[in-house]
Amino acid sequence: MEKGNSDDSEIRPVSSPPPVDRFGFLKNQQNGAPQVSSQSSIPREKERIKKWRKMIGVGGIDWKHYVKRKPHVVKRRIRKGIPDCLRGLVWQFISGSRDLLLMNPGVYEQLVIYESSASEMDIIRDISRTFPSHVFFQLRHGPGQRSLYNVLKAYSVYDREVGYVQGMGFLAGLLLLYMSEEDAFWLLVALLKGAVHAPMEGLYQVGLPLVQQYLFQFESLVKEYMPKLGEHFAQEMINPTMYCSQWFITVFSYSFPFHLTLRIWDVFLHEGVKIVFKVGLALLKSRQDELVQYPFEKLLHALRNFPEDAMNPDTLLPLAYSFKVLIFFSPT
Amino acid sequence: MAPVSALAKYKLVFLGDQSVGKTSIITRFMYDKFDTTYQATIGIDFLSKTMYLEDRTVRLQLWDTAGQERFRSLIPSYIRDSSVAVIVYDVASRQSFLNTSKWIEEVRTERGSDVIIVLVGNKTDLVEKRQVSIEEAEAKANQLNVMFIETSAKAGFNIKALFRKIAAALPGMEAISAKQEDMVDVNLRSNNSNTSQSQAQSGGCSC
């Protein structure tokens, strides 16, 4: 169903829509989410949303005040998971992207419409390969793919040194499921330029300096917290580039169940990159006893395919919080 | 059934520009399938498969890599560690063909002549969009002294032939027996023998 310049309104619905999970991913894909929580928890969920709405205020008017007065309450509630219907909005508050948006009216439009970028072909080659199993991004040249292209192109113009790097599409794609193009763009800017936390742009600059640094630090943390496993990795000649560079480059948005990705992103946007280290350590810890016995091939396979129960956010995240991680940032 | 004695292992690294079909070739080889919902490879991916040949059985360990220039800093150690480099281009993308020179150069720099290099022109199913002729690619392969084959992962064309060609070029039996110690893998059919397997392997690796 190739389409030219037709309007969205002209896109006819497919005869029988494919079955998707509650996040819009085609069923039976790796990103599949479990069924919605049981009936009994619905009133509790409603109560939670009410609390959150109160905390945010109309149009976000109370948010900053609330955060100042009760930072610990905010932190605790975010760690429990932001209600899905408020997620997009809250992400913009905690990442600092809403302020960037307000300070730069018209800039995004300028970048999208008038500028051209050396990365355009690179971006196009990856568009249909970013969340290909999500309905929003499935239709060739459909609204999802167009938005994704626009955000990535705009960023590659905004920062010509970084341009476009494979992996950024997953960040942008994830954001676009929760907010408009322009909002997603400014959140990407907030992350890469470091509006409230350490800038992420080093993950994508030439030589991938921050990837190298984080992988080195992650390896040291494994040795510190799980010395037996660290030693086993060394013996089997497993190094972190073999299994976890994607964890950092895409902040767990590449090959993990989507409901887990979202919970990690809630905390990531509020508390910074430390949560990526902590979740990584928790994943290893949860399977440590098996991993230390596996030889090279089996080990690599296990490190890329964690079982469903190891990826349950309600057990994985508390385990992640139990690790103390100090990251020293070397200014680039 | 192949004998269950020593199983020779070989590492292959897949290189080439973004979206030329490295992952698709590997998936076709591994599972004999092709689907349109591949995600772009980020960083490095790993897969392995046992290949049963007429006279022997080999275990292939495949490193799949991200094609974008920016990721090259992650790749050299994988080239150093591999005895085969599979360098893929898209027959419908002249640029991806031209860029194979850089990849071949990089492999030669890391490994000298102690490596098998295969140039692979993928996506022959895109008949109308072809930008690189088989003659031109053959000439380039001859000139650079590397092997060459055209494939279509989508149509399943020549994928088995590619891996058979690679297997036939792998160091022969005499090399295997000479290097037996670090090539030994114990009985892959049984998964209960984890402990002995891991011992055998770590013994091999630490030397």
Automatic annotation (TrEMBL), chain A:
User: Which GO terms fall under molecular function for this chain's record?
Assistant: GTPase activator activity; small GTPase binding
Does the keyword ATP-binding feature in the UniProt annotation?
no
The chain positions of domain Rab-GAP TBC read 81-272
InterPro entries this protein is in?
Rab-GAP-TBC_dom, Rab-GAP_TBC_sf, Rab_GAP_TBC_domain
Q: Is the keyword Zinc-finger in the record? A: no
What domain of life does the UniProt record list for this protein's source? Eukaryota
Where composition is biased (Polar residues), the residues are 27-42
Q: Where is the composition biased (Basic and acidic residues)?
A: 1-11
Membrane spanning residue stretches: none
- PANTHER family, alphabetized: GTPASE ACTIVATING PROTEIN AND CENTROSOME-ASSOCIATED, ISOFORM B (PTHR47219:SF9), RAB GTPASE-ACTIVATING PROTEIN 1-LIKE (PTHR47219)
This protein is called: Rab-GAP TBC domain-containing protein
From TrEMBL, chain B:
Q: Which SUPFAM superfamilies match?
A: P-loop containing nucleoside triphosphate hydrolases
Gene3D superfamilies cross-referenced by the UniProt entry? P-loop containing nucleotide triphosphate hydrolases
| Keyword flag Cell wall biogenesis/degradation | no
Task: Write down any Gene Ontology CC term.
Answer: Golgi membrane
Keyword set includes Transmembrane helix = no
**UniProt membrane topology term:** Lipid-anchor
Sorted keywords for this record are: GTP-binding, Lipoprotein, Nucleotide-binding, Prenylation, Protein transport, Transport
Q: How does it assemble?
A: Interacts with the C-terminus of GC5, but not with GC3.
What's a Pfam family in this record? Ras
- Cell compartments where the protein resides: Golgi apparatus membrane
Q: Name a single GO biological process.
A: protein transport
Q: Sorted alphabetically, which InterPro entries does this protein's record hold?
A: P-loop_NTPase, Rab, Small_GTP-bd, Small_GTPase
Recite the lineage of the species.
Answer: Eukaryota, Viridiplantae, Streptophyta, Embryophyta, Tracheophyta
Q: Which family does it belong to?
A: Belongs to the small GTPase superfamily. Rab family.
**Annotated protein name in UniProt:** Ras-related protein RABH1b
* Origin: domain of life: Eukaryota
* GO MF, one example: GTPase activity
